[in-house]
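HUMAN: Mind sharing a backbone?

ASSISTANT:
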Amino acid sequence: MSMADRLQVRPRVVALDGDDTLWHNETMFVTSHERFRALLLRHVDLPAERIDAWLLATERRNLKTYGYGIKGFVLSMVETAIEATEGRIPAGDIAELLRFGRAMLDHPVELIDGAAEVIGELRQAGCELWLVTKGDLFDQESKIARSGLAEQFDRIEILSEKDSHAYRRLLIRHGVAPEEFAMAGNSLRSDVLPVAELGGLACHIPYHLTWAHEQVADPQGARFLTLGSLRELPDVLRRLSGAGCPGSGPPPSRRS
């Protein structure tokens, strides 16, 4: 289905990403990354870029073991620090890295401007509204609860990975055709390109910071919409047919 054809079909389900789409997240990682770099430079004489690349390589290698999220990030910082210092890093500095992680886990959830209002508009338009995020289950559940948005969603899905296979399984499980599905999020890699590949309506809402692992150099041939902000999403969906989302009968039970 071409993008023009997709724009003639009103999605039955509208899904939103969580991290850096509804609430700020990457800023915490950037701050902790900078603190990690400064800590490590007390012990090694390396260019900052080398430290950054070392940590990123460790994170990517550990994704299969730890998955996404703060805990995997902290373990990767510890591993990188031990490797880079050849085991010389003091236990006190390892404890400091652990404190970085605890501070991240305890950080207040700060909603992105307009998030609550947009969700309210989508619900008023009759959308079946899903939250589809990925990462550590405990951390994501905690952030969703603290966001105050949980009760606004008809379904909440926390995935270990967001690729075309994961989206396909999700849609099949809930009886939703790809052309009935719209996904909006900040990550081309996780929120946009997999949904576009399946034939759904994918909306990219860029965030000012993007983890290197989530960056996509040049998504040639992919068909998706790029929005200036989350606030534009309800109007984009309204323009599909002039009436917003179609009613879908009684809402399903909340939670996945």
About this structure: The mean pLDDT is 89. The chain is about 45% helix and 10% strand. The CA atoms of residues 78 and 94 lie 6 Å apart. The radius of gyration is 20 Å.
